[in-house]
């Protein structure tokens, strides 16, 4: 089935430039807007702002997510509270900011396990190896290539992601439907396939 | 970069600092770069204006790339002692930033060749920041 409406994209990034560039260069995409004073902007700066769209009647078709966020303590997951100015507080603040995108992704996945998420950081540039391993294992999380973290590179990756989501998936002679239920089933089958256990569907 | 990058604040280790620089400067200074260089000189100038002079925004407004590096260096220099491999890399970035500073000051009057030179310098900074972050993460990396 051909998609008839513009794909709804939620950009979660504390900086405006990427979302502004996408809005300018991809008018065929609908960037979900956040109220800001008397106007709006085409990105959510934090989990709190993003959550509003994830709870909406029509959630996004894909999320573009930064990894590092320079936000005040009260906007940083998981605590959303002042962290203090002790050495421990400063260390926590630094860690929360460095990995804030991962906290956002974890919260997002609780509600939307198969919502496509495009990280604007290459896997090779994720500072923590364990985090990179978890991200690679997530079938619905994608990352830009190391030399493609420009707005143009992010847009190209986003278009590929949307095209793959819309295209019918095939395994040999078998056709997989595109519904959320079928995508989840396919993911579970893929994870069980390497085992010797029989699989009844 | 934020208040906890001020010189008086505890700065964390070299790998974390290098990653901050890669993200806040190296990525942002090439954010608007197209896949194919602009044919229009004014389009090139506009793109460099955005990437070099308005690299990141904070509560006070847009910050140029040179200012981002200066602030990062004031907060992080102690993590990169002289003589180490990582210090050689930060020195390289500093030299590139100085070259950018010289050209950026007269960006509105730069000729096409000078704009292209500035563009190449932004590529250099992006690459050097990425290489610094990668080097700083290696086990046993000596600052």
Descriptive terms for the model:
heterodimer, A: alpha/beta, five-stranded parallel sheet, two-stranded antiparallel sheet, 7 helices, 9 strands, B: 2 strands, 59% helix, elongated, disordered N terminus
Outline the biggest β-sheet of chain A. 5 strands, parallel
Proportion of helical residues of chain A: 25-40%
What does the overall shape of chain B look like? elongated
The span between the termini of chain A is 25 Å
End-to-end C-alpha gap of chain B: 22 Å
* Weakly predicted, low-confidence segments of chain A: none
Radius of gyration of chain A: 18 Å
Number of helices of chain B: 5
Class computed from helices, strands and strand pairing of chain A: alpha/beta
Structure classification of chain B: mainly alpha
Strand order of the largest sheet of chain B: 1-2
**Secondary structure: number of strands of chain A:** 9
Largest interface: A-B, 27 and 30 residues
Helix content of chain B: 55-70%
Whole-number mean pLDDT of chain A: 86
Secondary-structure element pattern of chain B, one letter each: HHEEHHH
